[in-house]
Amino acid sequence: MSLNHLDEHDHHYLASLVPPDRISTGQSNLHTHSRDQSRHPAVRPEVVIWPHTTEEIAAILRYADQRHLPVTAWGAGSSLEGNPIPVAGGIVLSFAQMNRILDIRDNDFQVDVQPGVIYKEMNHQLRHTGLFFPPDPGAAATIGGMIANNASGTRTVRYGSTKDYVQQLTVVLADGEIIEIGNRAAKSSSGFDLLHLFVGSEGMLGVVAQATLRLTGIQEEFAWAVATLPTIAAAGRAVFDIRRSGIDPAAIELLAPECIEVINRARQFGLTCSPTLFVELHGPTRQHLADAMQILEEICRNEGCLEFKPGLDRTERDRLVEARHALGEMIAQAHPDHKRVVIDVAVPISTYPEMIAYAREESLKVDAASAYTFGHAGDGNIHLVVGARPKDAQTWQAIDALNSRMVAKALALGGTATGEHGVGIGKIKFMTAEHGPSLAWMRKIKHLFDPNGILNPGKMFPDNE
Ligand SMILES: Cc1cc2nc3c(=O)[nH]c(=O)nc-3n(C[C@H](O)[C@H](O)[C@H](O)COP(=O)(O)OP(=O)(O)OC[C@H]3O[C@@H](n4cnc5c(N)ncnc54)[C@H](O)[C@@H]3O)c2cc1C
Fold first, then answer.
1. Fewer CB atoms < 10 Å away: N or C end of the chain?
2. Closest by alpha carbon to 311, among 284, 285, 280?
3. To which H or E segment does residue 310 belong?
4. Whole-angstrom Cα distance, residue 463 to residue 302?
5. CA of 234 to the centre of ligand 1 (A)
6. Which atom number of ligand 1 is nearest to the Cα of residue 328?
7. Per-residue pLDDT band at 465 (split at 50, 70, 90)
8. C-beta of residue 313 within 8 angstroms of C-beta of residue 286
9. Whole-structure pTM over 0.90, yes or no?
């Protein structure tokens, strides 16, 4: 199905749907909505619209569907695989102004939000309730973008990913129909699970106009530990043993020595440059944490731990969390003339030691001036940040080959080509290998919801269907 570019009449009609200050063809707005945080080439949309209501979204989609105009939803543009790049041009729907918290129902542990709410700001506003929304991708991501990418983060090992916190959605379908899916009960076995069909659908099946999110209680006590291990393999084994031990950590982040070096330089931590685990524990009492900390230390010592710093206070813990979240930025600052890719794979936890050792070994083979291995180790997730100068074609070829080897290894171990960043453009080429015949069923679902293919075209499917 071919899509159209906007003509003069389209611009005119769309301009009649929203006030003039919420629609733009200005070059700077088109540029801002042409690229995410990946190195995939920028493509400018033809118009950017900032809806305020579900009805406005519906009116825009109804028209776009009749005219076969591409529509791409836009949260904060923090994706890492080209997910929101409007590759076919057309309309970008930006949710920057649909960013209100509509209702906090703390008695039910739920919150109703518009899709453009930034999760960090939402958590800040929820603090007084003693509740929070745990998925934490680090970047200033919106709830709409997190739902569309099924984002997760450092705390996923204990609390799960975005899919575990989506309770109810208002979705506008490609033809403008508005549907409500899910309910407010803690559980339900009623009908097909349409709700979770939309989570992780990257804005290709419908546009999220409102979400009811599940919240969870903030634990009374927190502690962090930093464990320095002698080798990456030992760190990988320690991760597995921590998961098996039942101490249920809230975060287990693994950082290879080069990451520690960057963090030391940027934040003056003075940590030993060796494979390191940052482990966070949450619990109801200090005694609970002290017991868990002891088990954690024993596990790390069994793997030849060089240094174990337990019981860090809240300030120190906040500094470490901030440093871990800022790692991507620190790497970028360390190599200002480089472009980077973040290779993101995930494997079953029993195979994590093998995968992380493989990642480290393979990354060192690439002739890249910068290769950094780290990850949300507790849920079997590995990130490999590799960069080179934009015009260094030879190194980029080696990086692409490394990406393919990493994915092939993860799939061979029973894992996935993308642990949390989604498919976007970057992971399209692995979809057939990962999903086999079931990819055809995803295509059928896409066709059912969006027969004209207007929603975020050019993503997910190998033939750009
Ligand atoms: C430094 C850094 C660290 C990161 N760390 C993590 C991490 O730890 N874990 C992780 O999961 N991700 C991480 N990411 C990636 C990114 O932050 C997440 O994927 C995030 O969910 C994207 O949200 P966004 O609001 O920026 O969405 P965008 O990038 O704007 O869009 C993402 C997708 O959602 C669609 N979309 C947006 N809004 C809607 C809507 N209302 N309805 C339907 N579809 C919509 C878009 O079309 C697109 O396909 C990181 C990114 C950066 C830059």
1. N
2. 280
3. none
4. 50
5. 32
6. 1
7. very low
8. no
9. yes
**Residue ranges around ligand 1 (CB below 6 Å):** 36-37, 72-80, 83-84, 95, 115, 137-139, 141-142, 144-146, 148-149, 151-153, 202-203, 207-208, 328, 420-421, 456
Distance 78 CA to ligand 1 centre (A): 5
* Mean local confidence (pLDDT), 22-44: 97
C-alpha 110 to ligand 1 mean position (Å): 22
What torsion, rounded to 10 degrees, do the Cα atoms 408, 414, 419, 425 define? 40
Task: Give yes or no: residues 161 and 105 share one domain.
Answer: yes
Q: Identify the domain containing residue 174 by its residue range.
A: 101-217
- Cα of 18 vs centre of ligand 1, distance in Å, is 26
Atom of ligand 1 nearest to the CA of 83: 49
Query: How many angstroms separate the CA atoms of 311 and 28, rounded?
Result: 48
Answer yes or no: do 79 and 30 share one domain. Answer: yes
For residue 93, how far is its CA from the centre of ligand 1 (angstroms)? Answer: 15
Q: Do 108 and 213 belong to one domain?
A: yes
Query: For the domain that residue 146 is a member of, what is the CATH number?
Result: 3.30.465.10
Residue 376: give its domain's CATH number: 3.30.70.2740
Are 284 and 306 found together in one domain? yes
CA 376 to chain centre: 12
In this predicted structure, the answer to whether residue 370 has a pLDDT above a threshold of 90 is no
| 70-106 per-position pLDDT tens digit | 999 999 999 999 999 999 999 999 999 999 999 999 9
In a shared domain, residues 280 and 352: no
**257-279, pLDDT tens digit by residue?**
999 999 999 999 899 999 999 99
Whose C-alpha lies nearest to ligand 1, atom 32? Answer: 145
